[in-house]
Design a protein that fits this description.
Low-confidence stretches of chain A: none
Low-confidence stretches of chain B: none
Order of helices and strands of chain B: EEEHEEHEHHHEHEHEEHHHHEEH
CATH superfamily of the largest domain in chain B: P-loop containing nucleotide triphosphate hydrolases
Oligomer: heterodimer
Radius of gyration of chain B: 21 Å
Strand order of the largest sheet of chain B: 6-7-8-3-9-10-12-11
CATH class of the largest domain in chain B: Alpha Beta
Number of domains of chain B: 2
Helix content of chain B: 25-40%
Helix content of chain A: 55-70%
Radius of gyration of chain A: 27 Å
Number of strands of chain A: 0
Structural class of chain B: alpha/beta
Strand content of chain B: 25-35%
Strand content of chain A: under 5%
Structural class of chain A: mainly alpha
Distance between the termini of chain A: 45 Å
Distance between the termini of chain B: 28 Å
Number of helices of chain A: 11
Order of helices and strands of chain A: HHHHHHHHHHH
Shape of chain A: flat
Shape of chain B: globular
CATH architecture of the largest domain in chain B: 3-Layer(aba) Sandwich
Largest interface: A-B, 27 and 40 residues
Mean pLDDT of chain A: 87
Number of strands of chain B: 12
Chain lengths: 309, 319
Amino acid sequence: MTELNKDLFELQIADDSQSEHIASPQYSYWRSVFRKFFSSKLAIFMMVLSLLVILLSIFQPMFSGYNPNVTPNINRPEMKYIRPNSTYWFGTDDVGNSLFDAVWKGTGTSLFISFMATFITTTLGVIIGMWWGFSKRVDAVMIEVYNIVSNIPATLIAMILAYALGAGPWQLIFALSVTSWVSTAYFIRVQVMIIRDREYNLASRCLGTPTWKIITHNILPYLISVIMTSISRDVPSFISYEVFLSYIGVGLGQQHASLGRMIQQYSPYMTSTPYLFWIPVAISALISVSLYIVGQTLADASDPRTHMV
Amino acid sequence: MNDKEVLVEVKDVDITFKNGKRVFKAVKNASFNIYKGETFALVGESGSGKTTIARAIIRLNNISAGEILFEGRKISGKLSKEDRTWVQRNIQMIFQDPAASLNERATIDYCISEGLYNFHLYKDEADRQEKVDKALNAVGLLPEHKSRYPHEFSGGQRQRVGIARAMIMEPKFIIADEPISALDVSIRAQVLNLMNKFKDENGLTYMFIAHDLSVVRYFADRIAVIHNGRIVEVASATDLFRYPIHPYTQSLLQAVPMPDPEIEKAKQLKTYDNKHEEESEEDGSLQEIVPGHYIFMNEKQRPEYEAKLKEMMNTSVSS
């Protein structure tokens, strides 16, 4: 055993700042969101799937130039009702057009309508919901608006508007989003009321922070995951709404291809040539489910409580 | 005591909360002065209205009667924009729960410079950085903490961020709403010493809200005891602990445990029955019994309290 001597020891100065040091790596909100999102294999698969569908629906119609009113093969019976094969992947329909072209054109229209309606609903809903949650005077008015709107079936309003405004994608977007923002705003209002009077907001008030800055810096960041949840619910629900409205014949006119229009148009062939009916239905279900799962996973990932560990 | 300059004057303040038709009077006819450079403590049980008064001074609650003056200027009720700014610049608050009072989605840099941004109290970005660094340094935190988020800190560190955020505004008056009750016992002294350091360096005045009497005894110069929204006794810290006259103060002081089993065993507990306050409910007011020592009473109760005080003085002199 070596003998103890001075050389073995080293003088250490006590340093209080050492105990203040935080050893964990730097936290970044968005990096944590992406790490959490990409840790889910299902979400990655669904995201790839929905991206594929979105890209196909944007670019495929550009090459095919599909238009439901252009029917070059209408007098060639040999071109009609061709079952899916290597040339016509999804087969051909009752007028001899390729269903593959028709489906992607229709998906594009349906996605466009759904995304636009979601965008309008969310933007209006968040802005008005914030205002609604903060101001008592706005609350008194808006709560009555909410009571009225939520007690009239939204389908009825959309149907009446679709009839009154005529058929077309923009009219349909208006009909879908004209009342749906109210429920988003109500949802946001409740969330704002929950966190509005938390102590850190009182602290900001003591520091002289104006209300708009409290909204943008203190409230909105807390609502990211709530807003994400609302978006991930709205997108698939607007897709099925469009399908439903077009199916009952009040959505889009003859000149527009959309998933709903196709399902309505092909429903008589459900038994004779079932692929005509089931392929649009399957595509509609596929994008609804994949977008919903992507949205929900993103909503979960954007909640910082899931970032720990 | 009276030659000192009055900084905050609370005059006959009532605070009521309305919920539909139900009206609840949280603070009844509160009056007290806070002198420049002192630490004024407000003690009382939960729900007695301590925080409500503090929030009324910093304008988070509205008052329904009376007025509050700061440096002789009225700061209650409707104010002009300049007056509001003036209040926000000069009065700051340290909150009870450091976990709840910091914005979890903002960096420490933003949390501390929030007040600077609001009043543009810096020349340029470099000046702001320097001010934040200085504030962090003053509370014993490191400049590297600026890019961190509140949840990464310990309770004591978070409370020091809260102090730095208030101090960077260079206020004259700070309201500390139970600043240490949510903290671990081992770091309470650290936060109190920090507050004392700032008081000496910057000539601050504190209003300290607490329910922990042993802390108040160490920290405060003058103490007001509040019960059910009514201030029942105001005295200097030494007087209040030596001659607690109001029965509520007596029972409150008795509740402090003694670190001696023999004394604890022999202690006769007094329960407060609210009788004294009920008697003086109608015609009572805060009256000076000896200079600087105020009791809530009516004229009938006065001789009783005076006798009590005399008795206490005699026993303390003889023993």
